[in-house]
Amino acid sequence: MKPLPFFLLVASMVLATPGSASDTHSAPVAVNQNVAILTFLNEIAADNGVYMVTHKIEFFAGLAKGQTPRATVVTCSDSRVQANMFDRSPEGELFTVRNIGNQLVTAEGSVEYGVHHLHTPILLFIGHSRCGAIAAVSENYSKESPAIRRELDTLTIPKELNNLDGVKANVNYQVSVAMLKFSDEIESGQLTVIGAVMDFADDLHQGAGKLHLINVNGETDATKLKNVSALLTSKKTKSTPVPVPKKNTPHEKTPPAEPVHH
Ligand SMILES: [Zn+2]
Description:
Layout: H1 6-15, H2 27-54, H3 57-65, E1 71-76, E2 94-99, H4 108-117, E3 122-128, H5 132-137, H6 146-153, H7 163-181, H8 183-187, E4 192-199, E5 210-216, H9 222-225, H10 228-234
Parallel strand pairs: 1-2, 1-3, 3-4
Antiparallel strand pairs: 4-5
Helix pairs in contact: 1-2
Bound molecules: zinc ion.
């Protein structure tokens, strides 16, 4: 085990106060939790230290100036999906929104901020293999808490689909919702909406960890997706697709929000 930095030694003393080790009823669990917490804090501090010394001061100075991300990215919150799978240096490049099921409607304001205020030319939705949110809506999730049910209610996946096809259907649906919401930006050529699937389980048999492009501005034909350049050239004349009808999806156009200052 790595030695604990000073502040974590202090943290360990705080975490070991009454309610944990001194509580005979919950002591074993609390001690184990404290070990896990301290291990986690110690390891992220160590990794952060490496990060600090392996990036130049100019890099951080660039981040401090502000952000001009290349894409707004909506991914599932699933811990197995991370930006470093497809971008070795996502800092400042990806305005990332995460939620269960990589949905637009449950993070609409955040997505709007990326498109309307940061003016990212790309809005990318990323689903993934073995998605628990997609699996949940294929089954009965009525015993989940109201907050979780609310975020699952906005996913409509045909029950007959397997998980991977459900993931694809959801990504395509999210693209269609975004195309309706941001139709002006798409028609003017300012925005391209893209759908992709991170297949870390190799369910598509093209290599574990491959990011599959499955939708560009509503086009899902695999042959056409091999020539994205042609799709982008023709996008301005392409009619806006009709989104899949869906319950409880208030994605009507709303007036631009006031700029948010972080
Ligand atoms: Zn997921």
